[in-house]
Write a sequence for this structure.
């Protein structure tokens, strides 16, 4: 059975014919937020409805990393290698220090509670950019149903200055976000269709100039499902979740190919010994595939 679909010839050089998609673990409710720790040879990912963060160690298997997890969703690492997490249940972004203690990065804006931070990225200057849609407070499935106090915005927190600012406000449900390799472009998806069938379902791109974002045109619309989460490879291709697998989008917005996954994909990250393994969280399972690509994996 084919495990990929090339929509451009170059995609045939990105996949390896003898490196198929592998299901690493299954039996979860809805997994998201994979983040790779090369220094610990482990992947962390969230099983959101089960309120836990799981750990996958190649050759060993999975175990529980943190439970309860405050219904954590997206994760990344800051420039010092610390885990940065979006938590639906506590409606905050947190940082896990090297000694295991937790620091709150952001839990409110102008005196109002955040909704349910969803996904997060750290820029090279140490600022923490995150999306704050309302998914985690609309129902009790992935958090605690609660009243929405703020619109669904994209924020930038600067732990060095103790500030939190809105950077993008014209979204329905901002979700995944990632910078291009040189940080000159910020990609943000808008997945407004979960509670509104006519809502936005696209990825937008913004030119980054210091603290200023311009542009914001629709960059790409996946032809199946949603761009929930995505990461970039070292050539600036965007590898995004979609309804039928992982889609690879060129920096000019063209679909180059697809990794076909039998479950709806939520998010991905690169990892492994050469940053060439694509870890895929998809509904109830964790998958991976080795690619002939190198992901941007910081630090
Ligand atoms: Mg997400």
């Amino acid at each position: 059975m084919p495990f990929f679909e090339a929509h451009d010839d170059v995609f045939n050089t990105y996949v390896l014919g003898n490196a198929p998609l592998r299901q690493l673990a299954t039996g979860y409710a809805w997994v998201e937020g994979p983040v790779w720790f090369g220094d610990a040879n482990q992947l962390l990912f969230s099983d959101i409805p089960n309120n836990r963060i799981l750990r996958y160690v190649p050759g060993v298997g999975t175990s529980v990393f943190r439970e309860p997890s405050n219904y954590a969703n997206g994760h990344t690492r800051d420039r010092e290698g610390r885990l940065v997490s979006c938590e639906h249940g506590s409606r905050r972004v947190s940082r896990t220090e090297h000694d295991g203690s937790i620091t709150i990065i952001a839990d409110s804006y102008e005196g109002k509670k955040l909704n349910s931070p969803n996904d997060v990225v750290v820029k090279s200057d140490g600022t923490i950019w995150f999306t704050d849609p309302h998914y985690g407070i609309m129902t009790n499935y992935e958090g605690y149903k609660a009243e929405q106090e703020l619109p669904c915005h994209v924020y930038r927190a600067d732990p060095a200055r103790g500030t939190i600012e809105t950077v993008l406000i014209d979204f329905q449900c901002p979700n995944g976000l990632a910078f291009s390799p040189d940080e000159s472009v910020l990609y943000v998806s808008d997945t407004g269709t979960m509670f509104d069938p006519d809502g936005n379902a696209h990825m937008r791109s913004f030119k980054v100039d210091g603290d200023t974002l311009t542009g914001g045109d629709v960059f790409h619309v996946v032809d199946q499902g949603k761009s929930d989460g995505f990461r970039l490879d070292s050539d600036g291709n965007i590898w995004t979740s979609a309804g039928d697998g992982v889609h690879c989008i060129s920096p000019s917005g063209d679909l180059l190919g697809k990794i076909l996954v039998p479950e709806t994909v939520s998010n991905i990250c690169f990892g492994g010994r050469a940053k060439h393994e694509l870890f895929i969280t998809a509904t109830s399972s964790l998958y991976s595939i080795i690619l002939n690509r190198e992901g941007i994996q910081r630090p």
The first strand starts at residue 4 and ends at 6. The pocket of magnesium ion is lined by residues 32, 74, 118-119, 175-176, 228-229 (CB under 6 Å). The two ends are 36 Å apart (CA to CA).
